[in-house]
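Q: I'm writing up a methods section and want to include an example of the input and output format. Could you take the sequence below and give the corresponding predicted structure tokens, formatted cleanly so I can copy it straight into the document?
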Amino acid sequence: MEEVNVVVAHSERATLRVGDVFLKVDADQARVDVEVDAMALAPVPTPEVLWRKPPVLAIAALPGTTLGRLGEPSTASPAAWSAAGAAIRELHDAPLPPWPGRAGRGRDELTAELDGECEWLVTNGVLPADLVTRNRRIAEAALRPWTPAFTHGDLQIAHVFVDGDDAITGIIDWSEAGRGDALYDLATFTLGQEEHLGDVIAGYGTDVDVDIDVIRAWWSLRSLLAVRWLAEHGFDPTAPGCEVDVLRSRM
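A: Here is the clean output for your methods example:
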């Protein structure tokens, strides 16, 4: 009999693995709709949808291994990182999906959310005021006009699978996909993995302007917004190499 392994579980959703099948349980059916539709539209390898019976979505496991995990050194080769950059570019060049995405929030909405989280972090003594202030200042560069692209919206390295040095076998977890800022995807993918940014950009292509300062700004912005949510959902943003360390590295 196959064992049931809990991949991730919190109050919003849970993912279980049974053999080569992943069962995603999500009470928000709109989020599942986005995931299924995005995988159908994305021009990159994605998991096969086996069946869907709300609130459960069953998808097949992907071959290969992930590029790594936030907070841990990646053992993937430079060629694998470059191949991932090329796959991300293929996604960003695809026709826009017909729905907005979380990565496409406007400047006013993001600014209000960022200011609220910064105030909460300082008022509650979660992070030192100078650390928050410095990263809030860096984050400002991400709050600028951008051209919408087909974005994944939560492109963590643990969501990208590779087989060998340069074969991207699939990208998972598309529930945040939509029209958004391409540099947000690149920043999420390289969060805590700054040493691999050059390889990713080499694969992504030098024919477009990839503003490194904006990527760094997204590192600060994403980390500031994530600390409270992670802590309230059973994750540890203070773990080595994770969000709080990313914020400290900006000092």
